[in-house]
Design brief:
heterodimer; A: 45 residues; mainly beta; two-stranded antiparallel ribbon; B: 132 residues; alpha+beta; Glutaredoxin; two-stranded parallel ribbon; 7 helices; 4 strands; 39% helix; globular
Chain lengths: 45, 132
Amino acid sequence: MTDDRGIGEGDLLPDVTLVDHEGALFRFSDHRGRPLVLVLHRHLA
Amino acid sequence: MLAVRDHLDQLGDVLPIVITFTDDPTRLAAYRTHLGIDFPVVADVDRVLYRRFGAGRGSLRRVWSPGTLVMYARLLRRGRRLHTPTEDTRQLGADAVIDRDGRLHRLWLPPGPDTRPHIDEIIVAVHELTGH
């Protein structure tokens, strides 16, 4: 069951496990200490 | 995200991350090359982040607006091969700035497919974190 609770400003980013362009697992928590700019894309062309 | 790519010098020590929801992550490397970016492109296949950020789905009228149809017609005239999309074309995007502790600092949820925050808004939000 997924956690679909909305998050707002000030909330901790959920550590969703993603897959990167090299096929490796990508976690936001591995990049703490550096600001992130997330661009959530629409569909790939 | 091209605006982010073109303003990296004003964004300082941030890590931009492009998030897609493609169910075929093998396409990500080619897409990254196509965009000419050297920061990560990742897949959120189940759209967990999209839901948790509240990124909605656009109406058919907004997504397939006359402006969109004109754009595709122009691409076809230029010889671009178009493929039937296999992904949800109505999914809208979002933009967010995350602080160093992993907390959401600023979130933009565009009302339609053609609307994104101006790069200056993103730069200001980053500078609020970095003190520049």
